[in-house]
């Protein structure tokens, strides 16, 4: 396999442990040395799997209430060193920095914390610093390092290492790096929008959910809706929606909105043109 590399060491520091156990067990089975911190370290130890504490590597404990755990040259040097760079290899040997071949991260749930209506102080503490830095460092050095940036990648990564005995190709590592920058940009977009709150006229959105439509503007074209389409309305009958169908829905809603003070309103549209519109005491009478 092109650019194939065996994982020999891993740094694991995650928020969500769901689905992590079989990954850790597979790594241990293949002789991978595991480094970890805090709750993740305790989780791995409870699986009866040996783990090297990051604080033993750095000679620093977790400080400032957990705000600083992995931010240290011995951690980031282990991730960012280029295996084919002679100077890099001399320096990690000089400073006794272990190479880290795999980084697994799951960020603090900033988006969910905001949605829960938590206090500003609680929201601020859910801005991940170490995790996002680990993601960017490992993704930058994808030539030598595998980065798993979210619990959403746990399952696919487990399947990969189980089949290939903890070996990955250059292409696979690059794909995980791509997903990592998707995760980090999505995360930062939500943080910006929380701080901005509409004050600065800058449009930043990141939507992970999407649904393929029946077709685009014409039958030979592709159409994709980004967002949770099923949460917008209930479709009572008919084929899968097309791009044009959604344009008609949008036009109908905007048209009916002009009569919102007049009572229940029903609109029928075809290609953005109203074929019928009525307002009555009940939606049934309007139809």
Strand-helix topology:
Elements: E1 5-6, E2 9-14, H1 21-29, E3 33-36, H2 38-46, E4 52-53, H3 54-58, H4 73-80, H5 86-94, E5 102-106, H6 110-115, H7 120-125, H8 130-140, E6 146-148, H9 154-164, E7 167-168, H10 170-196, E8 210-212, E9 224-226, H11 243-257, E10 265-270, E11 273-279, H12 283-286
Parallel strand pairs: 2-3, 2-5, 3-4, 5-6
Antiparallel strand pairs: 1-7, 8-9, 10-11
Helix pairs in contact: 1-9, 8-10
Largest sheet: 5 strands, parallel
Q: Compute the gyration radius: what is it?
A: 25 Å
Number of strands: 11
CATH topology heading of the largest domain? Rossmann fold
How would you write the strand order of the largest sheet?
Answer: 4-3-2-5-6
Integer tally of domains: 2
Secondary structure: helix percent: 40-55%
Give the mean pLDDT.
91
% residues in beta strands? 5-15%
Give a verbal description of the structure:
- With 287 residues, this protein is of the alpha/beta class.
- The protein folds into 2 domains: 5-196, Rossmann fold (3-Layer(aba) Sandwich); 210-286, AICAR transformylase, duplication domain (Cytidine Deaminase, domain 2).
- 42% of the residues lie in helices and 15% in strands.
- The chain has 12 helices and 11 strands.
- The strands form 4 sheets. Strands 4-3-2-5-6 form a 5-stranded parallel beta sheet, with helices on both faces. It has a two-stranded antiparallel ribbon with strand order 1-7.
- The longest helix has 27 residues, at 170-196.
- The protein is elongated, with a radius of gyration of 25 Å.
- The model has no long low-confidence stretch (mean pLDDT 91).
